[in-house]
Amino acid sequence: MTLLLLLAASAGCSSKPPPTVEVAGGVPLVSAQSRVAAPSFSGEGLDGDHISYEDYKGHIIVLNFWASWCAPCRLEARDLNELAQETEPLSVRFLGINVRDSRDKAQAFERAFQSNYPSIFDPSGKATLGFQGQIAGYTPTTLIIDRTGRIAGIVNGAIQKETLLNSIRHVSEEAPSPLQGIP
Predict the structure, then answer these.
(1) What pLDDT is attached to residue 31?
(2) Among 53, 97, 133, 147, which one is most buried in terms of CB atoms within 10 A?
(3) Residue 178: which residues within 8 A CB-CB, separation 6 or more?
(4) Which pTM does this prediction carry?
(5) What's the CA gap between 22 and 29, in Å, rounded?
(6) pLDDT of residue 82
(7) Confidence of residue 5 (pLDDT cuts 50, 70, 90)
(8) CA-to-CA distance for 26 and 21, rounded, in angstroms?
């Protein structure tokens, strides 16, 4: 039991989950006052270009952890592509992090599903490491990061298009608090 408590403490877990905001038809979001900052991450994209979280600051970011061998990732791929296009006018940017995969298979996945947003190739887990304690390690996992760089919502497992869209809209309508984004 002590080991479990130590592991939970070291992963940043607490016995009390953060307060959430219910979004009609959406993913429950963490209340703005209780959100934690998303870690900085970067890496080489599947196309060879460098991708950095810093380049997307000020936008709402939908960050999807995926792999080519993941059946739920295949199920949600088209919906994520559609949402990336639909939400761009709301200043939403989609990014992927490809985990535990080979570059050839990840690139084939992106071609097959005609991915319209960049993904970091992260077989070593370096870009993913900063999210330890915030994500449960499921593939797929999708995070919504608000304009101030704080994690607003987490979906473990395949997304439901309308559910994610409703939550993105809710986050896009939030007025940034003057206290958000201050470390």
Answers:
(1) 93
(2) 97
(3) none
(4) 0.86
(5) 7
(6) 98
(7) very low
(8) 10
